[in-house]
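User: These chains co-purify. Model them together.
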Amino acid sequence: NTLKPYLDCIRTTLTAALCLRNFPSQIVERHNKPEVEVRGSRELLLQPIVVSRNENERCLIEPAINSVRVSIRIKQADEIEEILTHKFSRFLMQRAEQFVILRRKPVSGYDLSFLITHKHLEDLWKHKLVDFVIQFMEDIDREINGMKISVNTRARIVAHEFMKQFA
Amino acid sequence: QTMQSFHQIVPPSVGISCHAWNHTGEMLALCPGSNELYIYENCHHSDPNKWIKAHVLKEHDMLISGISWSDRNNKIVTCSHDRNAFVWKYDSSTNQWVPTLCVLRIDRAATYVQWSPDGAKFAVGSSNKTIPVCYLDSSQSSDWYVSRIIKRHKSTVVKLAWHPNSQILATVSSDRRCRIISATMNEIDRNADSGPFASHVPFGEVYPNGEILCNSWANAVDWNSSGSLLAVASHDSTIQIVDCTSNCQILHTIMYNSLPLNEIRFVGEEGIVGVGHDMEPLLFSSAGSGKWAMKSKIDSESLNSPAKRGSANSVTKVASARAMFQAKTSRGEDSANATQSSFKTTHRNVITHLQVRPNNSSYQISTTGPDGLIVFWEIGSLGLNVGSMSIR
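Assistant: Joint model of the two components:
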């Protein structure tokens, strides 16, 4: 089973990457911007890490001095799962303001992205935040599976009811 | 066993960005994560609730990133993300702290400030990739602070440390280097003192071999009390010990097995205490073997069970059941993983600042961070030869 080592690896990488600090902008005076988004000064960015479970599931962690971007590619085996993932992540991303750490647009090649800045770490407990990201990755697979089963079940019931009139 | 005591001096939603003690330890200056400076008095009192918030100083526009309180001239210097620094002088006739403007000539935020040990000048680290070194200019009718700029850096200057002779600065920057730079100013210093180096170098120049490379951002730096050794902590969880008396040779590189440090201090000649993302002080020492290594984590190893934390812990079944129910509704945790949310450490967020608390009876350090706690640690009881711990 590759799930546990995959999640453990992401957990330790995130715990190390989330060592952030309050870092004012070097480029614009009086501004404080997430350096992983601005990407203005190369020395403030760390090496991005991709943790892959297989070719379909991976996680990209881009650390910087005051912010971290975590992008997830969810397993999508067939077209139904692709549609469901797309709709589900769109639902979440439209509500990114309430989500606080979610990014409105995923990084290209991924389905969902989180942007965590040092301000978030001042308000939220870091170990709970890492727990949340790991839990989220576990839950989202389960949810997509559950949704696919209910879509198939519903399709079967509808088709059955429809065909009854021809019996 | 270390004794520690803590106090929630500002709420966790506010946090503390930096703090400084006066030379007797009776007054405390701190910034509650905003543009204000609080000054507490009566801090010798053992009950921190009896400390009096005597002054709230509002002169800065943005977050105050550094405070330094000189033990020679009793002046406080604060620097802020608004590109300014102010020197505050106490006027006993009006019981007010009066600010004086400093002409820093920087275009970006100031990140750190420190008085020199002799109190004649102070140096400011900035996001402008420069360090203004300021001194009092009384040639005009009113006195203000003017600066000479040290360039040399390719990125933000994160911290700096004065050599005990007040003429050499060790600086750490996010360009992954620590630099040892001369701050000898003819206007202030009577005799040029090159400290552990053979010959002195003009203002703003790096001493020979004085550029120390790190594998990641250089986070913290400290001199030992005699000014012969320099310790540099970097973000890849290493501390390099540099011997400045022998051509800046790197004596040891300590690689420890936990998260990066934000501040380090020498404890005597054989110990270093570091604080940072582990939320507790780490102790490194060379005692015994002569080789530097990490000795212990000071907090979580001292059996810090929730019952010992001194909070009014409920003993009755009803109260503990209610606490569990509240945890489930407010934080979504059930009893299975409830233990994960209780902290093994006193601090509940990273430690960003460390100061030596002036104290006649024992050697104490105080640590602060975004959780709004100020925690005091008894370093003297750790069995190290504390010797003379420099107060900065």
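Confidence is low (pLDDT under 50) at residues 302-315, 335-340 of chain B.
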